[in-house]
Amino acid sequence: MDKQNELLSNIIDLILDNYLSPELRYTCYALDDIVKYCHRRVEGRIPFHLTGSSVEGLINAGDFDTMNVFPGLVVEDVEKYKRTESNMIIFRMALFEGTHAGYVHLQRVGQSGYISAKGVREKHYENVRGVKIETPEETVEIKGPSVKFTPTDNVPCILCEKWPRMAAEFLTRERDNGWPTAAMLDEIEELGCHVVPVAHKKSHYPDVEWRLSFSIAEKYLIRTWSTTQMKCYFLFKEILKKYFVSTESTTEKVISSYFVKTTMYWSCERRPPAFWAESNLVDILLDTIDALIIFYSNRICPNFFVKNNNMLSHLSEESVAPVVSKLQEIRNNLGTHIFRCKALDYFKLYPRADISRIPHMISQLQNDAHDVTLLQQLLEEIQHVLTYPDVQNTVLQCHFIAILHKVIEFLQASFKSIQGTSMLENNIAEDIISNLEGIVDKRTPDAAKEAIKKIIHRCLGYILHNISLEESQPKEVRNKCATLAEEHYKASIDMPMFVSDEGVGGKAYLALLYYTQGNEADLTELIQGFIQSATKEKSPDGKPKLDGTRWILSADVLISRVNPLVQEPPPVIRNDELLSQMSKNLRFKRIVLDPVALILYIGMKSTKPPLLEDVKHLFSQLKDYFLQKYHVRIPYLNEAEERHFDLLDMMKNTV
What we know:
Blueprint: H1 3-16, H2 22-43, E1 48-51, E2 65-69, E3 73-76, E4 89-94, E5 103-108, H3 117-131, E6 140-143, E7 146-149, E8 152-160, H4 168-172, H5 182-191, E9 193-196, E10 210-213, H6 215-223, H7 227-245, H8 249-252, H9 257-270, H10 281-298, H11 317-332, H12 334-339, H13 357-365, H14 372-385, H15 389-415, H16 420-425, H17 428-434, H18 436-439, H19 446-468, H20 475-491, H21 504-517, H22 520-534, E11 535-538, E12 544-546, E13 557-558, H23 571-574, H24 577-585, E14 592-593, H25 595-606, H26 611-630, H27 647-654
């Protein structure tokens, strides 16, 4: 390895440690495991599977999608059918002459004719469009087999419990480097697969053709990857996304992130374990890009599970030529393209004076990454900066917040069918927390498991809180939900050290609970305690002084989703101009408010002198603190619109 690649590997390795740490990666996996457990526990089946980059462990890499499994339907790829369940509709796989490998046709057992994939897609589109709240900011788009309801792809599918004969070669082919292992292959075979309603691009039977989908097996394989393999996959996706997925639509049809994943699978199978050393990261990435160049140059990219399914067979030489040319240019200037990835921008989140050199160096390397002296200086700067605990924690907190948002969103979706008394009667919260060791991956670090338990407490508190606000629920159910919500919020206050916000995020949720329940005594006590913990010293005039360094990136509160399960917000929110406006008009825009501001805002709305004077004084310091020390307004504000507005002024004007 030459000096440039060695330095570049070390720089990337340090930076990506914060994106792909075991704590964060396995917390993403745990979300998937917990959602599946909830549905198995209550419904006896899994109605949908989470897919996409985020559930693969790539926190900020993009999509977070779902595969909706049709209930009561199953596909069997056998000659004789042994099923006797009267409540199951069974389809058999069939192949027409000229059907492309990896695609099948479905025929209901005992009937003639074949199931229309086109009809299923259209029906699924109508169902998704019908259940979503109509809003001009959201668009529905049919994309292959999926309905894309911004920003999530929603794919309908039917379960095939047994491994299909068409993919038998995957289980038996010779492998020189022991990946996947024999034990892994046995587990993958038990997972089965799914069929999705989409035909091959050159199909002779597009209306009735379905594609085999191995998404569940793919998730299983990715969980076995080492940190180095994950880093390579992450960078590979980020680079290609920048130059292909985000360009003109004609290019999108030629290359997709799935081809990147497939290339990684083949590289993992054909390369020995010693090849995947951390110090070898740039050479690994070059090798993987070379493999993709060969695929496109030959217009042959075999599917990893159905090897004789050439996923590039529909492309012409003319269409792949510009892709090959661009891939070769990326390969020849890999360092430059790496430094142009957004993944290397995270130092901008923490604009301290002694960190400001790093973004400047990265900007220089975005034009020419061959300067070995500059690479060495950048490596030394990063090594120095990462010795600061607050910087390391800041980055981890940023990514953990992203996971927290996703957990809330999908746990809420999981519980929509089991709200109210059935949720309480099933003791789901206690089951998840007490059985967590058996639910999540055994490789999950202890710190991540502790964080997961806290997240579950907070999410369940959030869900119960919302049920307690639903006026259609019986009073005893609402009261019980409020009591349980308080217990869960309190249990979530002390996060583990690697994402600790010293209790601020949990107290913000608790303050919101007390505020919406009209619990003035507990709310006053909470705010008094918060002021004491948030102020280490007095200002010259004897007033409390906000110790902002402890709160800048605490676990944010999603104000816009304060009532996601409630059709009509309660009066305490409805009569509050700010909260009502956010709740009603900005529901889909993910307005995020720093929890310190929320606590102080609620304090100004609910406390009395002399406590009120201290609250107002601290609130007035908050805006200056953000602007002067961090040169930003409230972080993470209205990311969907990518604009900032002065939320503190809006809040102050409503009091």
